[in-house]
Amino acid sequence: MGICGKDLIKDGWFSERGALWPGQAMSLQVTDVLYSGRSAFQDLLVFTNPTYGTVLVLDGVIQVTTRDEFAYQEMIAHLPLFAHPAPVDVLVIGGGDGGVLREVLKHPSVARAVLVEIDAAVVEASKRYLPALAAGFDDPRVEVVIADGAAYMADHVDAYDVIITDSSDPIGPAEVLFQPPFYAAMARSLRAGGLACCQGECMWLHLDLIRPLLSACRRLFPTVGYAYTAVPTYPSGQIGFVICAKDAGVDLATPRRAPSAAVQGRLRYYSPPVHAAAFVLPEFARRAVEEGGDADGGRTAADAVADK
């Protein structure tokens, strides 16, 4: 049956624990449970917290909070979008909460934004409980498709300028989004000059997952980079992004465009200097992702699985 979100609330506190972040937990006080239930794919929990606002949890893992969601949504969207000279057609895989879609729509060149989400319940929960993230669903440029993302891309070859995969962790329904066939489908669905950006896990915890992911991407794309952002409610307060370009020699760390003054005024995390800085990694992570060196940031996800 899987995990039940309400079972993770004890004495008025929700605690996120998982094999992918062994020996640690993230706990948030629960002031009100807005929703708890199970879709055809996963457990959904929505609650409020006095510091972080409304919190969306899938299978026991925090996905967004209304206080810090912009740090993730802006970076996963604008890193690839501002690295492209003029994106017109954009595909978002996952991201059923609508936050990435909201950011995509800030680019005036975008004429069409397609969101492919496997779980319709996430979209409906966001519309009801997270309206600040879900506002983009009403934009006339948006098409929402409830389907498997890999299957959708197989039917849409050479169709998109930018593809953004906003996935949960590589367990449960999101596991397929971290496999080489998914990245191959993404490469085929991108047009010449296109870019892709995917959730790339935490460099403090998951270098053993990140390195083979980057290796798989480098076999498919001539240009691959790794960047990161800080999100307080994610494991270790940090999450990374794997960014791929279909063209060789693309400087992913240098934006091709800059936000207008009006758009920059609406952004709370992203800016051109932050874009460049996101690719500057601490040495332990740089050695691991750029040189293939040993992960010396601590215990890894593989260690946790081996302990089971």
From TrEMBL:
UniProt keyword terms in alphabetical order: Polyamine biosynthesis, Transferase
Gene Ontology CC: one annotated term: cytosol
Pfam (any one): Spermine_synth
Record-linked InterPro entries: PABS, PABS_CS, SAM-dependent_MTases_sf, Spermi_synthase, Spermidine_synt_N, Spermidine_synt_N_sf
One BP annotation, GO: spermidine biosynthetic process
CDD domains: AdoMet_MTases
PROSITE patterns attached to this UniProt entry: PABS_1 (PS01330), PABS_2 (PS51006)
UniProt KW Plastid keyword: no
UniProt GO MF annotations: spermidine synthase activity
Domain PABS: 11-246
Keyword hit for Protein biosynthesis: no
Stretches of the chain forming a coiled coil according to its record: none
UniProt cross-references to SUPFAM superfamilies, sorted A to Z: S-adenosyl-L-methionine-dependent methyltransferases
Catalytic-site annotation from UniProt: D166 (proton acceptor)
Family: Belongs to the spermidine/spermine synthase family.
Stated name of the protein: PABS domain-containing protein
Species, as recorded: Porphyra umbilicalis
Lineage summary: Eukaryota, Rhodophyta, Bangiophyceae, Bangiales, Bangiaceae
